[in-house]
UniProtKB/TrEMBL annotation:
The keyword 4Fe-4S does not apply. GO terms for molecular function: metal ion binding; monooxygenase activity. Its cofactor is heme. Belongs to the cytochrome P450 family. This is C6-oxidase. Keywords: Heme, Iron, Membrane, Metal-binding, Monooxygenase, Oxidoreductase, Transmembrane, Transmembrane helix.
Length: 465
């Protein structure tokens, strides 16, 4: 027995020494002079497991030990985490100095080589310009909002007296609403085929990049191929018909009116960009707004008042227009407060194209920089009583124009779809709160990290007004 104990203790002791040696070796490997403080964890996996398991607590711990700018090794890459507000701003506005988007190559491969996050410099300027003309305020007013309104009206019909999964409904909504803006009248006929492919594409971008049959990553690639062939067919049919369509694809193809001339491949990648970028952001914000409104009856009452007043000015079936949308001040505040408190976006990724000096430290070429903005949302100096859902805080002080407000990113890559996204969520809320009352069925789990999601759905019992 004693021998066994000695052997086991010996093995445990040996394992401890071995692990410590490996950790130490990995630290030494990355101990270049001038690097920021921090730890690199295990070879290959780094500190990914701790990061995913502990979530925000991991970041807070490391910050308390090493300050606002520290090194780590997460999600497959040596990474600098920056939680310093001034430095974050500097990083976001200085892409030209070699601080380009740092999203994983595996994700960009599925999204396409002309995807906005994959292009830099002039190519980025051009693709972004092409996108901005499609979603400008004038376009929202005359082309997009009417389509969004028509879509929401029909998507939100017949929910009364049933149990729905609001997560599923808002996901379908985010996809179908964008798709209608892109492909107008043809969107309905193709959507049943397109939607499952799109969902596979999204899953592929969020999965481990193992390209073997039956992996989500492989399915994501396959979905990209199918989506390309669907879009190519649509473009060819439109070209053959010679008719002009008044939707995003129609505008992209209209070489007389549109000064941005894109190849078919670029058009397809831009369409995938629009669908992808506005999907999880819009759907999750909408779901969480419904959740917070349910939990805060006073806020719901105020939102409802705003929307009932808009309805009162209109015929029962009259669509909401741009001026109605702009008058939804409280709804906008609810959307900001939802994005802040739920932290729909934890931060953005950049990478260095050369060795560079930042904050007195050296950041080597090819390292990722995680501009981690989550904690800003809970800073009591910026948002008093930060854990309370209080949309009124957005009404007085012009908070949305403050430098520290990074829910929509900042600098050269600031979200071009901000206004469009808010218009979609506002229109959704308009029809939801004026048509329905709802109770949570209860018991559904909500995860806040690494993504905000309800793993088994968020079920609501809906009744008609
Ligand atoms: C509530 C809704 C939304 C939120 C919270 C949001 C958030 C963000 C954030 C944080 C970024 C910066 C990414 C970075 O710096 O790397 C971004 C970029 C972007 N967003 Fe949004 N977004 C929303 C809706 C939309 C919509 C509806 C579209 C549709 C067109 C869109 C299109 C884009 C694009 C194309 C970029 C990349 C811009 C570039 O790299 O130049 N977003 N968004």
């Amino acid at each position: 027995m004693a021998v066994l104990i000695v052997v086991v203790l010996g093995m445990v002791f040996g394992l401890c020494i071995f692990s410590t040696a490996i950790l130490k070796w990995n630290e030494v490997r990355y101990s270049k002079k001038g690097l920021p403080p921090g730890t690199m964890g295990w070879p290959v996996v780094g500190e990914t497991t701790e990061f995913l398991k502990q979530g925000p607590a991991f970041m807070k711990n490391q910050r308390s030990r090493y300050g606002n700018f520290f090194k780590s090794h997460i999600l497959g890459c040596p990474t600098i985490v920056s939680m310093d507000p001034d430095l974050n701003r500097y990083i976001l506005v200085n892409e030209a100095k070699g601080l380009v988007p740092g999203y994983p190559q595996s994700m960009l491969d599925i999204l396409g080589k002309s995807n906005i996050a994959a292009v830099h410099g002039l190519a980025h300027k051009y693709m972004r310009g092409a996108l901005l003309t499609l979603i400008s305020p004038t376009m929202i007013r005359h082309q997009l909002l009417p389509k969004i309104d028509e879509f929401m009206r029909s998507h939100l019909s017949n929910w009364g007296n049933s149990v729905i999964d609001i997560q599923e409904k808002t996901k379908e909504m985010a996809f179908l609403s964008s798709w209608k803006q892109i492909a107008g009248i043809e969107s309905g006929t193709i959507s049943q085929e397109f939607m499952p492919e799109f969902f596979n594409l999204v899953l592929g971008t969020l999965s481990l990049p193992i390209n073997l049959p039956n992996t989500n990553y492989h399915r994501g690639f396959q979905a990209r191929k199918n989506i390309i062939s669907l879009l190519r067919k649509l473009i060819e049919e439109r070209r053959a018909s010679g008719k002009t369509s008044y939707d995003m694809l129609g505008f992209l193809m209209n070489s007389e009116e549109n000064k941005y001339k894109l190849t078919d491949d670029e058009m397809i990648d831009l369409i995938i960009t629009i669908l992808y970028s506005g999907y999880e952001t819009v759907s999750t914000t909408s779901m969480m707004a419904v959740k917070y409104l349910h939990d805060h009856p006073k806020v719901l009452e105020e939102v409802r008042k705003e929307h009932v007043a808009i309805r009162a000015r209109k015929e029962p079936d009259e669509p909401i227009d741009y001026d109605d949308y702009k008058s939804m001040r409280f709804t906008r505040a609810v959307i900001y407060e939802t994005s802040r408190l739920a932290t729909i976006v934890n931060g953005v990724l950049r990478k260095t194209t050369k060795d560079m000096q930042l904050n007195g430290f050296i950041v080597p070429e090819g390292w990722r920089i995680y501009v981690y903005t989550r904690e800003i949302n809970y800073d009591p100096c910026l948002y008093p009583d930060p854990l309370t859902f209080n949309p009124w805080r957005w009404l007085d002080k012009g908070l949305e124009n403050k430098n520290f407000f990074l829910v929509f990113g900042g600098g050269t890559r600031q979200c071009p779809g901000k206004e469009l996204g808010i218009a979609e969520i506002s229109t959704f809320l308009h029809y939801f709160v004026t048509r329905y009352r709802w109770e949570e069925v209860g018991g559904d789990k909500l995860m806040k990290f690494p993504r905000v999601e309800a793993p088994n759905g968020l079920h609501l019992k809906i009744s008609t007004h």
